Each structure stands twice: as structure tokens, then as C-alpha cells.
Automatic annotation (TrEMBL):
GO terms for molecular function: kinase activity; RNA binding. The keyword Transcription regulation applies. This is GAF domain-containing protein. The lineage of its organism: Bacteria, Bacillati, Actinomycetota, Actinomycetes, Jiangellales. It holds the Pfam family ANTAR. It comes from Jiangella alkaliphila. The keyword Transcription regulation applies.
Length: 228
């Protein structure tokens, strides 16, 4: 399933991550590029500011956000395992993996079947984890794991460089705003979570403004920004 990136691709990704204008955009680019690097269905990045505690910092969509947040709610899951054991997690079929008795069935009910979770770190400090998700079993092989680990090294450098506490906190706060805006769009327009998130992303790109600012506009006015 590997995306087949070569060294030039990784160099370009590293440059793009380094040149991101702020920590919020850095985290968004990490999950976007992760899907190209490993060709996963969805991706999520969680940060650890306190031992054993996770906060969702960036996801490709609302589904990935839900799966990531469940790890924090249940205080178990592959991201926590990867951080605690300092090792990459590969799950071929979540239905057959007994390591997370609460998170596993809940994630499977949402449609998750297989995943790779890679620890992000700087020196001895654990920054968080990158979660790569697939809706079919046995979606990832050893080559995918190797690519994910290489990508995670680049992502770790980018997150660490952008990772002044205030900057990452700002990015996490943006996730909360986006969640509130999603809820408003779902209620007012009869959308599901993925549709609401996709609308916010499209408005962000079409208007060339940050996703956070789109969410703030929706929360403040009750209306999405006018499309150009």
C-alpha cells in the first residue's frame, strides 16, 4: 500500500513542513502528506503534553478525529502504546487484536480495520504519535511501516521546530473551534460530521484563509464565509 516516495519526495516534504507559516499549518501538512507517503485512507496526529494524556492536534477528516479522541477518552489505544513502548504499532485487523479492549471495539464500530501508529519524538522527549488508518484489514505491510517511520522522523523535526508550547496550544485550540463549527453546520444544514468537516476545508481553501478562521467565522456569525 506504500505511496512509493523517493528521497527527493521526502526532501520536498521536509522543506514544505519547515516553510509552513505557523504550527497550525505544520500539523495540517503532516497529516496531509502522511496519506501520500503511505497511501492510507485517513490520518491523525496526537500530541502528548502530559504523560499518558493525548490531545488531537490535526486530522484529515472528522472520522479520524473521532477515532483519535476515543484513545484519549478510554486512555488506551495504539498511539499511547507507541509512545509508552517507544515502538511502532502495526495492527492487521483490529477485530483480532485484544490489546485495547475498549478502544478497539469502538474504533471497529466506526469502520476501522487496520492501522500503523508511529511515535513522534525529539531526543528522549516524546512529542506524540502519528496514526495512519485504513478501512480494510491487512492494508499495511512491512514496507509501509518502514516508510511511516521515515516520514515520522521528518514530522518529528517539523513538530519539534514548530513546537513552542504556545504555538502547539494555539493549534490544539483551533481543533476545538473546528469541532464547534462542525457541530453548528451539522445542526443547521443537516450534514454529518465528515460533510461538515469537508465543507470547512473547502471554504478554507477556496477563500485562502486558515481553517481556524473559517471555524471562528461560522461560530461568530452562524454562517460560513461567502465563497469567491
Amino acid at each position: 500500500m506504500s505511496g512509493g516516495l523517493d528521497s527527493a519526495d521526502f526532501s520536498r516534504i521536509a522543506a514544505d513542513l519547515h516553510e509552513a507559516p505557523d504550527s497550525e499549518r505544520t500539523l495540517e501538512l503532516v497529516v496531509e502528506y502522511a496519506c501520500h507517503a503511505v497511501a492510507c485512507d485517513r490520518a491523525g496526529l496526537v500530541l502528548s503534553h502530559r504523560p499518558g494524556r493525548l490531545e488531537s492536534a490535526a486530522t484529515t477528516d472528522a472520522w479520524a478525529s473521532n477515532v483519535d479522541q476515543l484513545q484519549g477518552e478510554y486512555n488506551e489505544g495504539p498511539a499511547l502504546w507507541a509512545m509508552q513502548h517507544r515502538a511502532t504499532v502495526l495492527v492487521d485487523d483490529i477485530d483480532a487484536d485484544p490489546r485495547w479492549p475498549r478502544w478497539g471495539p469502538a474504533a471497529a464500530e466506526l469502520g476501522l480495520r487496520s492501522l500503523v501508529s508511529v511515535r513522534l519524538f525529539s531526543g528522549d522527549r516524546t512529542l506524540g504519535a502519528l496514526n495512519l488508518y485504513a478501512a480494510r484489514a491487512h492494508a499495511f505491510d512491512e514496507d509501509d511501516v518502514a516508510v511511516a517511520e521515515i516520514f515520522a522522523r521528518h514530522a518529528s523535526i517539523a513538530v519539534s521546530t514548530a513546537g513552542e508550547e504556545a504555538g502547539l496550544r494555539y493549534a490544539i485550540d483551533a481543533r476545538h473551534l473546528i469541532g464547534l463549527a462542525q457541530g453548528m453546520l451539522m445542526e443547521r444544514h443537516g450534514l454529518d460530521a465528515d460533510q461538515a468537516f469537508a465543507m470547512l476545508r473547502r471554504l478554507s481553501r477556496d477563500n485562502n484563509i486558515k481553517l481556524r478562521d473559517v471555524a471562528s467565522h461560522v461560530i461568530t456569525t452562524g454562517l460560513p464565509p461567502k465563497e469567491p
